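Customer escalation, tier 2.

The customer says the design service returned an amino acid string that "doesn't look like it belongs to this structure." They asked us to rerun it and document both sides in this ticket. The original C-alpha coordinates are below, unchanged.
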Protein backbone atom coordinates (compact mmCIF):
# COMPACT_ATOMS: atom_id res chain seq x y z
CA UNK A 1 0.00 0.00 0.00
CA UNK A 2 1.03 3.62 -0.38
CA UNK A 3 1.20 4.01 3.39
CA UNK A 4 3.59 1.06 3.68
CA UNK A 5 5.78 2.48 0.92
CA UNK A 6 5.95 6.00 2.34
CA UNK A 7 6.03 5.33 6.08
CA UNK A 8 7.72 1.92 6.36
CA UNK A 9 10.18 1.92 3.44
CA UNK A 10 10.83 5.29 1.78
CA UNK A 11 11.15 7.58 4.80
CA UNK A 12 13.05 5.10 7.02
CA UNK A 13 15.51 4.31 4.23
CA UNK A 14 16.25 8.00 3.68
CA UNK A 15 16.76 8.38 7.42
CA UNK A 16 19.05 5.33 7.51
CA UNK A 17 21.22 6.84 4.77
CA UNK A 18 21.63 10.04 6.79
CA UNK A 19 22.57 7.92 9.80
CA UNK A 20 25.17 6.19 7.60
CA UNK A 21 26.62 9.57 6.68
CA UNK A 22 26.92 10.35 10.38
CA UNK A 23 28.76 7.05 10.79
CA UNK A 24 31.24 8.06 8.07
CA UNK A 25 31.85 11.40 9.79
CA UNK A 26 32.72 9.54 12.99
CA UNK A 27 34.80 6.76 11.41
CA UNK A 28 37.07 8.95 9.26
CA UNK A 29 38.36 10.57 12.47
CA UNK A 30 38.73 7.37 14.47
CA UNK A 31 41.72 5.14 13.76
CA UNK A 32 40.23 2.30 15.79
CA UNK A 33 37.15 2.20 13.59
CA UNK A 34 39.13 2.51 10.36
CA UNK A 35 41.15 -0.48 11.52
CA UNK A 36 38.08 -2.54 12.44
CA UNK A 37 36.46 -1.71 9.12
CA UNK A 38 39.43 -3.16 7.26
CA UNK A 39 40.56 0.10 5.63
CA UNK A 40 44.29 -0.23 4.83
CA UNK A 41 46.27 2.36 6.78
CA UNK A 42 47.97 3.58 3.60
CA UNK A 43 44.61 4.88 2.36
CA UNK A 44 43.20 6.51 5.49
CA UNK A 45 44.05 9.95 4.10
CA UNK A 46 42.37 9.14 0.78
CA UNK A 47 39.18 8.17 2.61
CA UNK A 48 39.26 11.17 4.94
CA UNK A 49 39.99 13.69 2.20
CA UNK A 50 37.20 12.29 0.07
CA UNK A 51 34.77 12.91 2.92
CA UNK A 52 36.23 16.31 3.86
CA UNK A 53 35.96 17.48 0.25
CA UNK A 54 32.30 16.43 0.27
CA UNK A 55 32.65 14.21 -2.78
CA UNK A 56 29.04 13.33 -3.68
CA UNK A 57 27.57 9.86 -3.69
CA UNK A 58 25.55 8.46 -6.58
CA UNK A 59 23.53 5.44 -5.49
CA UNK A 60 23.19 2.48 -3.14
CA UNK A 61 20.81 -0.35 -2.22
CA UNK A 62 19.62 -1.01 1.30
CA UNK A 63 18.51 -4.59 1.86
CA UNK A 64 15.57 -4.68 4.25
CA UNK A 65 13.55 -7.37 5.98
CA UNK A 66 9.87 -6.42 6.03
CA UNK A 67 6.65 -8.35 6.49
CA UNK A 68 4.14 -5.50 6.65
CA UNK A 69 3.55 -5.89 10.39
CA UNK A 70 6.45 -3.95 11.88
CA UNK A 71 9.36 -1.66 11.10
CA UNK A 72 11.57 -2.66 8.19
CA UNK A 73 14.95 -3.85 9.45
CA UNK A 74 18.25 -3.04 7.76
CA UNK A 75 20.03 -6.28 6.88
CA UNK A 76 22.95 -4.57 5.11
CA UNK A 77 23.79 -1.65 2.86
CA UNK A 78 25.42 -2.23 -0.50
CA UNK A 79 26.52 1.36 -0.90
CA UNK A 80 29.29 0.82 -3.43
CA UNK A 81 28.56 -1.70 -6.19
CA UNK A 82 24.89 -2.72 -5.95
CA UNK A 83 23.40 -4.69 -8.81
CA UNK A 84 19.74 -5.50 -9.66
CA UNK A 85 19.61 -1.87 -10.81
CA UNK A 86 18.47 -2.63 -14.37
CA UNK A 87 15.74 -4.91 -13.06
CA UNK A 88 14.57 -2.31 -10.55
CA UNK A 89 14.80 0.84 -12.67
CA UNK A 90 13.71 -0.48 -16.05
CA UNK A 91 12.44 -4.03 -16.27
CA UNK A 92 9.85 -3.89 -13.50
CA UNK A 93 8.48 -0.58 -14.83
CA UNK A 94 8.05 -2.18 -18.26
CA UNK A 95 6.29 -5.10 -16.54
CA UNK A 96 4.03 -2.67 -14.68
CA UNK A 97 3.03 -0.79 -17.85
CA UNK A 98 2.32 -4.03 -19.68
CA UNK A 99 0.20 -5.38 -16.81
CA UNK A 100 -1.87 -2.19 -16.83
CA UNK A 101 -2.27 -2.34 -20.61
CA UNK A 102 -3.40 -5.97 -20.34
CA UNK A 103 -5.95 -5.09 -17.66
CA UNK A 104 -4.28 -7.27 -15.04
CA UNK A 105 -3.59 -4.16 -12.94
CA UNK A 106 -6.09 -1.36 -12.66
CA UNK A 107 -5.40 2.27 -13.59
CA UNK A 108 -5.37 3.22 -9.90
CA UNK A 109 -2.28 1.10 -9.20
CA UNK A 110 1.24 2.52 -9.14
CA UNK A 111 4.84 1.50 -8.54
CA UNK A 112 7.46 3.00 -6.24
CA UNK A 113 9.99 3.61 -8.95
CA UNK A 114 11.55 6.98 -9.69
CA UNK A 115 14.99 5.42 -9.95
CA UNK A 116 15.89 6.29 -13.54
CA UNK A 117 14.63 9.86 -13.33
CA UNK A 118 16.47 10.37 -10.03
CA UNK A 119 19.68 9.03 -11.56
CA UNK A 120 19.42 11.47 -14.46
CA UNK A 121 18.92 14.33 -12.01
CA UNK A 122 21.77 13.17 -9.80
CA UNK A 123 24.23 12.90 -12.69
CA UNK A 124 23.36 16.47 -13.65
CA UNK A 125 23.99 17.58 -10.05
CA UNK A 126 27.38 15.94 -9.57
CA UNK A 127 28.95 16.46 -13.03
CA UNK A 128 29.56 19.41 -15.30
CA UNK A 129 27.49 19.73 -18.50
CA UNK A 130 29.12 17.74 -21.27
CA UNK A 131 31.59 16.04 -18.90
CA UNK A 132 32.75 12.62 -20.03
CA UNK A 133 32.38 9.81 -17.53
CA UNK A 134 34.16 6.52 -18.06
CA UNK A 135 32.12 3.48 -16.99
CA UNK A 136 34.19 0.45 -16.09
CA UNK A 137 32.98 -3.09 -15.52
CA UNK A 138 33.32 -6.65 -16.73
CA UNK A 139 31.90 -6.82 -20.27
CA UNK A 140 31.64 -10.62 -20.04
CA UNK A 141 29.37 -10.49 -16.98
CA UNK A 142 25.82 -9.72 -18.19
CA UNK A 143 24.64 -8.49 -14.77
CA UNK A 144 27.59 -6.14 -14.38
CA UNK A 145 27.30 -4.83 -17.92
CA UNK A 146 23.56 -4.20 -17.55
CA UNK A 147 24.18 -2.27 -14.33
CA UNK A 148 26.88 -0.12 -15.90
CA UNK A 149 24.82 0.54 -19.04
CA UNK A 150 21.77 1.49 -16.94
CA UNK A 151 23.84 4.14 -15.22
CA UNK A 152 25.43 5.28 -18.48
CA UNK A 153 21.98 5.60 -20.06
CA UNK A 154 20.97 7.98 -17.26
CA UNK A 155 24.23 9.91 -17.66
CA UNK A 156 23.59 10.39 -21.37
CA UNK A 157 20.12 11.72 -20.62
CA UNK A 158 21.82 14.20 -18.27
CA UNK A 159 23.83 15.45 -21.29
CA UNK A 160 27.04 13.80 -20.19
CA UNK A 161 29.44 11.79 -22.27
CA UNK A 162 29.47 8.10 -21.35
CA UNK A 163 32.39 5.92 -22.38
CA UNK A 164 32.48 2.22 -21.48
CA UNK A 165 35.86 0.64 -20.87
CA UNK A 166 36.62 -2.90 -19.69
CA UNK A 167 37.83 -2.77 -16.11
CA UNK A 168 40.77 -5.05 -16.87
CA UNK A 169 41.97 -2.73 -19.66
CA UNK A 170 42.53 0.33 -17.46
CA UNK A 171 46.20 1.20 -17.17
CA UNK A 172 48.60 3.97 -16.17
CA UNK A 173 50.14 6.63 -18.38
CA UNK A 174 53.78 7.64 -18.02
CA UNK A 175 52.49 10.62 -16.01
CA UNK A 176 50.72 8.34 -13.52
CA UNK A 177 47.18 8.98 -14.73
CA UNK A 178 44.64 6.25 -15.32
CA UNK A 179 43.78 5.66 -18.99
CA UNK A 180 41.31 3.48 -20.88
CA UNK A 181 41.95 0.82 -23.53
CA UNK A 182 42.29 3.60 -26.14
CA UNK A 183 44.91 5.43 -24.06
CA UNK A 184 42.43 8.19 -23.21
CA UNK A 185 43.05 9.74 -19.79
CA UNK A 186 40.22 9.04 -17.35
CA UNK A 187 39.08 12.14 -15.52
CA UNK A 188 35.90 10.75 -13.94
CA UNK A 189 35.42 7.03 -13.44
CA UNK A 190 32.37 5.05 -12.41
CA UNK A 191 33.68 1.62 -11.49
CA UNK A 192 31.75 -1.52 -10.71
CA UNK A 193 34.67 -2.67 -8.61
CA UNK A 194 34.37 -2.65 -4.80
CA UNK A 195 36.56 -0.36 -2.77
CA UNK A 196 37.79 -3.15 -0.51
CA UNK A 197 39.42 -4.68 -3.60
CA UNK A 198 40.53 -1.40 -5.14
CA UNK A 199 42.39 -0.44 -1.97
CA UNK A 200 44.35 -3.70 -2.22
CA UNK A 201 44.88 -3.67 -5.99
CA UNK A 202 48.35 -3.36 -7.51
CA UNK A 203 47.28 0.08 -8.79
CA UNK A 204 46.16 1.21 -5.31
CA UNK A 205 49.28 3.35 -4.69
CA UNK A 206 48.20 5.53 -7.64
CA UNK A 207 44.60 6.14 -6.60
CA UNK A 208 45.29 9.50 -5.01
CA UNK A 209 48.09 10.76 -7.24
CA UNK A 210 46.20 9.94 -10.46
CA UNK A 211 43.76 12.81 -9.80
CA UNK A 212 40.94 10.64 -11.15
CA UNK A 213 37.56 11.36 -9.63
CA UNK A 214 35.93 8.11 -8.54
CA UNK A 215 32.23 7.33 -8.38
CA UNK A 216 31.42 6.00 -5.88
CA UNK A 217 33.79 8.23 -3.83
CA UNK A 218 36.44 6.62 -1.60
CA UNK A 219 34.51 7.36 1.61
CA UNK A 220 31.93 4.81 0.47
CA UNK A 221 34.49 2.16 1.56
CA UNK A 222 33.21 2.77 5.08
CA UNK A 223 29.62 2.01 4.09
CA UNK A 224 30.18 -0.92 1.70
CA UNK A 225 31.32 -2.99 4.63
CA UNK A 226 29.24 -5.00 7.08
CA UNK A 227 31.36 -3.60 9.90
CA UNK A 228 29.09 -0.60 9.39
CA UNK A 229 26.31 -2.49 11.17
CA UNK A 230 28.01 -2.64 14.61
CA UNK A 231 29.02 1.00 14.16
CA UNK A 232 25.41 2.03 13.50
CA UNK A 233 24.18 0.01 16.48
CA UNK A 234 26.76 1.68 18.73
CA UNK A 235 25.69 5.12 17.52
CA UNK A 236 21.92 4.49 17.40
CA UNK A 237 21.17 1.67 19.86
CA UNK A 238 17.58 0.51 19.78
CA UNK A 239 16.69 2.31 16.57
CA UNK A 240 13.52 0.68 15.20
CA UNK A 241 15.04 0.05 11.75
CA UNK A 242 18.29 -1.47 13.03
CA UNK A 243 19.14 -4.93 14.33
CA UNK A 244 21.61 -5.44 17.20
CA UNK A 245 25.07 -5.96 15.70
CA UNK A 246 28.54 -6.60 17.13
CA UNK A 247 31.92 -7.81 15.98
CA UNK A 248 32.14 -11.53 16.68
CA UNK A 249 35.48 -11.22 18.46
CA UNK A 250 33.78 -8.97 21.04
CA UNK A 251 30.90 -11.31 21.82
CA UNK A 252 31.90 -14.84 20.79
CA UNK A 253 32.15 -16.07 24.39
CA UNK A 254 29.02 -14.19 25.39
CA UNK A 255 26.98 -16.04 22.77
CA UNK A 256 27.60 -19.25 24.74
CA UNK A 257 27.01 -17.78 28.18
CA UNK A 258 30.29 -15.99 28.83
CA UNK A 259 31.08 -12.32 29.10
CA UNK A 260 31.35 -9.87 26.20
CA UNK A 261 34.19 -7.39 25.74
CA UNK A 262 33.82 -4.60 28.32
CA UNK A 263 33.33 -1.92 25.66
CA UNK A 264 30.14 -3.57 24.39
CA UNK A 265 28.94 -5.22 27.61
CA UNK A 266 25.96 -2.97 28.25
CA UNK A 267 24.77 -3.04 24.64
CA UNK A 268 25.20 -6.80 24.40
CA UNK A 269 23.39 -7.50 27.67
CA UNK A 270 20.43 -5.48 26.40
CA UNK A 271 20.31 -7.63 23.26
CA UNK A 272 21.42 -10.96 24.79
CA UNK A 273 18.01 -12.64 24.81
CA UNK A 274 17.19 -11.61 21.24
CA UNK A 275 20.57 -12.82 19.97
CA UNK A 276 20.16 -16.11 21.84
CA UNK A 277 16.88 -16.73 20.04
CA UNK A 278 18.39 -15.96 16.67
CA UNK A 279 21.37 -14.30 15.04
CA UNK A 280 23.30 -14.23 11.80
CA UNK A 281 27.07 -14.42 11.26
CA UNK A 282 28.48 -12.45 8.31
CA UNK A 283 31.99 -11.61 7.09
CA UNK A 284 32.58 -7.85 6.94
CA UNK A 285 33.32 -8.32 3.22
CA UNK A 286 31.15 -10.68 1.20
CA UNK A 287 28.85 -10.81 -1.79
CA UNK A 288 25.59 -12.63 -2.52
CA UNK A 289 25.28 -14.30 0.87
CA UNK A 290 28.76 -15.88 0.82
CA UNK A 291 30.00 -16.86 4.27
CA UNK A 292 26.65 -16.16 5.94
CA UNK A 293 25.07 -18.51 8.48
CA UNK A 294 21.85 -18.35 10.52
CA UNK A 295 21.66 -19.54 14.12
CA UNK A 296 18.57 -20.18 16.23
CA UNK A 297 18.62 -21.22 19.90
CA UNK A 298 22.31 -22.03 19.71
CA UNK A 299 22.06 -24.20 16.60
CA UNK A 300 23.13 -23.43 13.05
CA UNK A 301 20.02 -23.77 10.87
CA UNK A 302 21.22 -22.37 7.52
CA UNK A 303 24.52 -21.63 5.85
CA UNK A 304 26.03 -20.98 2.43
CA UNK A 305 28.50 -23.35 0.84
CA UNK A 306 30.60 -20.46 -0.46
CA UNK A 307 33.25 -19.72 2.18
CA UNK A 308 35.45 -17.55 -0.05
CA UNK A 309 34.99 -14.55 2.26
CA UNK A 310 35.10 -16.39 5.57
CA UNK A 311 38.72 -15.41 6.31
CA UNK A 312 37.55 -11.85 6.98
CA UNK A 313 36.47 -10.67 10.45
CA UNK A 314 32.90 -11.61 11.25
CA UNK A 315 29.98 -9.72 12.68
CA UNK A 316 27.00 -10.96 14.67
CA UNK A 317 23.63 -9.45 13.80
CA UNK A 318 20.21 -10.07 15.27
CA UNK A 319 17.95 -12.29 13.17
CA UNK A 320 15.09 -10.71 11.25
CA UNK A 321 13.14 -13.68 9.95
CA UNK A 322 12.11 -13.13 6.35
CA UNK A 323 8.46 -13.78 5.46
CA UNK A 324 7.55 -16.94 3.56
CA UNK A 325 5.44 -16.57 0.41
CA UNK A 326 4.92 -19.92 -1.26
CA UNK A 327 8.33 -21.14 -0.17
CA UNK A 328 10.15 -17.95 -1.22
CA UNK A 329 11.68 -15.43 1.16
CA UNK A 330 11.65 -11.84 -0.16
CA UNK A 331 14.22 -9.17 0.64
CA UNK A 332 13.36 -5.57 -0.14
CA UNK A 333 15.96 -3.47 -1.95
CA UNK A 334 15.42 0.22 -1.20
CA UNK A 335 17.32 2.31 -3.73
CA UNK A 336 19.08 5.41 -2.46
CA UNK A 337 19.82 7.89 -5.24
CA UNK A 338 21.90 10.79 -3.99
CA UNK A 339 20.65 11.12 -0.42
CA UNK A 340 17.06 9.91 -0.61
CA UNK A 341 15.13 6.72 -1.29
CA UNK A 342 13.72 6.73 -4.81
CA UNK A 343 12.48 3.25 -5.52
CA UNK A 344 12.09 -0.37 -4.57
CA UNK A 345 13.09 -3.75 -5.98
CA UNK A 346 12.47 -7.20 -4.49
CA UNK A 347 14.54 -10.35 -4.65
CA UNK A 348 13.35 -13.68 -3.32
CA UNK A 349 15.02 -17.01 -2.71
CA UNK A 350 13.94 -20.46 -1.58
CA UNK A 351 16.87 -20.30 0.81
CA UNK A 352 16.65 -18.17 3.94
CA UNK A 353 19.95 -16.66 2.77
CA UNK A 354 19.60 -14.63 -0.44
CA UNK A 355 22.02 -15.90 -3.11
CA UNK A 356 23.25 -14.70 -6.48
CA UNK A 357 20.59 -16.72 -8.33
CA UNK A 358 17.66 -15.30 -6.37
CA UNK A 359 14.61 -14.23 -8.37
CA UNK A 360 13.79 -10.60 -9.03
CA UNK A 361 10.11 -9.87 -8.36
CA UNK A 362 8.41 -6.69 -9.64
CA UNK A 363 5.93 -4.93 -7.37
CA UNK A 364 2.93 -2.63 -7.55
CA UNK A 365 1.18 -0.31 -5.11
CA UNK A 366 -2.44 -1.12 -4.45
CA UNK A 367 -4.83 1.66 -5.37
Amino acid sequence: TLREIEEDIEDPSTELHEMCREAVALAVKDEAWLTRLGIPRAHWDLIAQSWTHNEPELYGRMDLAYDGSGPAKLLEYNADTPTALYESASFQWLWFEQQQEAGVLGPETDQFNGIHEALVERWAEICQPGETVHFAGDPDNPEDYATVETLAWAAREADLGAQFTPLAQIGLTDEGQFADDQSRVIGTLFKLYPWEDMLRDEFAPHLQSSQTRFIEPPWKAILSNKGLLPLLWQMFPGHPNLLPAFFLEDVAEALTGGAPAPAVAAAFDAARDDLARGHVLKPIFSREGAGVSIWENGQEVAQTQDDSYSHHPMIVQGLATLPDFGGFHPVLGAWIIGRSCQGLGLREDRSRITHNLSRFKPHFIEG
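Tier 2 assessment: The sequence is consistent with the input. The radius of gyration is 21 Å. The CA atoms of residues 133 and 162 lie 5 Å apart. Sent an explanation to the customer and offered a walkthrough call.
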